[in-house]
Amino acid sequence: QVQLQESGPGLVKPSQTLSLTCTVSGGSMIDYTWSWIRQPPGKGLEWMGVIEYDGSTYYSPSLKSRTSISRDTSKNQFSLQLSSVTPEDTAVYYCARVRPESGSYDRLDYWGQGTQVTVSS
User: Fold this and answer.
1) Could you report the per-residue pLDDT of 51-81, keeping only the tens digit for each?
2) Distances (CA, A) of 95 to 14, 43, 44, 114, 120
3) Residue 94 has what pLDDT?
4) Which residues 6+ apart lie within 8 Å of 72 measured at CB?
5) What pLDDT, on the 0 to 100 scale, is given for residue 1?
6) Could you tell me the CA-to-CA distances from 25 to 15, 18, 29, 99, 106 in Å, in that order?
7) CA 78 – CA 61 distance, rounded (Å)
8) Which run of H or E residues covers position 70?
9) How far apart are CA 102 and CA 97, in angstroms?
């Protein structure tokens, strides 16, 4: 019954900030941990980071310097900001829920449909 939906611009110019929002339905987001994942064309899934039930955040080392995940609990939403983007950031971006009691941030049980973001001038 948990549903997630990504939203945001599909086109971002190089050097600007990519911003996406995930809206959670069917449950309160403060009860779980939530993640952002992306998949560049022709490549595998890349874990980007999470926001924990208490608001703590953790990021992939390769993206930490320019990634920020935040939340708005009143709207049951969490967001992704990726700064200084280049064409290599072109990908399908997904939000997902971390599987409870899995012991790992990359075990995900509910996913959004994904949204295509293209970085181009």
Assistant:
1) 999 999 999 999 999 999 999 999 999 999 9
2) 23, 18, 15, 7, 22
3) 98
4) 78, 79
5) 86
6) 33, 23, 9, 16, 21
7) 20
8) strand 67-72
9) 11
* Residue written as token pair 């980007």: 48
Tokens 């920020």, located at residue: 68
Q: Is 49 left (phi over 0), alpha (psi -120 to 50) or beta?
A: left
The CB density around residue 17, as the number of other CB atoms within 10 Å, is: 13
What phi and psi values does residue 16 have, to the nearest 5 degrees? -90, -175
Query: In this structure, what is the dihedral angle of CA atoms 70, 75, 77, 78, given to the nearest 10 degrees?
Result: 0
Q: What is the pLDDT of residue 58?
A: 97
Low-confidence ranges of the chain (pLDDT < 70): none
Q: What is the rounded CA–CA span in Å between residue 115 and residue 119?
A: 13
